[in-house]
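Chapter summary example: a protein plus manganese (II) ion.
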Amino acid sequence: MAQIDTLIDRVRSYDPDANMEEIRAAYVFAEEAHRGQKRASGEPYITHPLAAAEILVKMKLPPVIIEASLLHDVPEDTNRTLDEIRTQFGDEVAKLVGGITKLGKIKYRGMERYIENLRKMFLAISEDVRVVIIKFADRLHNLETLDVLPPKKQYRIALESLEIYAPIANRLGMGEMKGRLEDAAFRYVLPKEYEWTQNLVQNTLTRREGYLERIMTQTRKDLQELDLSIVDVHGRTKHLYSLYKKLLKNDRNISRVYDIIATRVIVPTVADCYAALGVIHGRWTPLKGRIKDYIAQPKPNGYRSLHTTVFCEDGEIVEFQIRTTKMHHDAEFGIVSHWSYDEQKGKRLYNGSTPKIDWVGQLAETQKELSNKKKYLRSLEEIKIDIFNDRIFVFTPQGDVLDLPEDSTPVDVAYAVHTDVGNTCASAKVNNEIAPLDRMLRSGDVVEIITDRNRKGPNPNWLSSAKTRHARAKIRQFARASLTSWIKGVIPGKIRKK
Ligand code: MN
């Protein structure tokens, strides 16, 4: 019972009011149900739900989630039923366990499997996002113990994690979970690339560690001299897979990636963040165009921080990330921070309801389309771009913010504003200058759409540059409609008889 004791001690440390006996009961229930079962590694099966629960305890999550994670494989893999879990642990725990069980078995192969997986994840998110969070912990532990499985299965599970789990974690703002899922999967999906990236990081660490230590000491000193209180100044190494992707974008040239190791400055308040930025810019010269204010303009997944890249001593380039304790916590845990224990207030932020997430509505829409497989296959790439790719935000001249996929164009903006605006869109101004309708937009652009009431409809060529599923669907729809009316005009009798 040693491990469950440690787990309960940890829960007690962040949530003294939690019902420890019930957590222990969930463990005992699961342990008895799985007794005699072994993991592929030969270990008793209970080590797996226990490890999943530990991941969630580190995120300081409430007891219901911890209990559900301990019980997550019981209905699927043992003789005990969901009803028994409901009787003993109540509706909420049973609902979560039931949700995870539904996510469990997917029989299809290849593309069908991918679709079914996505569909179930989206459905789970719109019903109760906590289910997906337990699923992440489950998957993360499975990835970390993948070595004992046959290579084909390793590859399948790892790829699925990279293509489905990590992007969803990212959209939920769970930076730490996304990074861990990706890194655990990376070595099985692209083993050679994994090793290459890991070596690069090792070399950089060896070469720069001492240097960055000095920069951090200097930063602490500068901040203290201005009486700015510091919560923490530390170095953070970029997660391997996100570094790898960045390297690919930069011709594999490591000298062009400045944030392999970044310096993180954590301060108490937002005002302190800007003050700290001023102090850093006072000592070192910032690189032009590399100051990012994600506090004034948070990323669509909620990420907030100030980023700046500066020339430090000896011409070395260093990235600083400045944020408050709250922002730091949110960046690591994302949506989960809604349920984390708030130590300052001495209470849980969680009040029983699921926090509202803007794009869950969008997912619900996607969900409907997923039921039509044929249609879905056709729009799969667009859905992936809409939901998973990096996002930008652009502004209308009225100051409204639009959240769009990377490389969106003025046409996407026009359709995001209104279908009529899209259909009658004639030209665009980006930051007050006339710009082509296929211009790739950047975050922060102010986009004004100029419409022409006499315009008959969208130009089919826009399909080659428009990025959002919404805009593309509307352009196609219009093209189809006008084709039908053209046919009606040419052979009126035939159509009208119908
Ligand atoms: Mn499991």
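Key point: Confidence is low (pLDDT under 50) at residues 347-356, 493-498.
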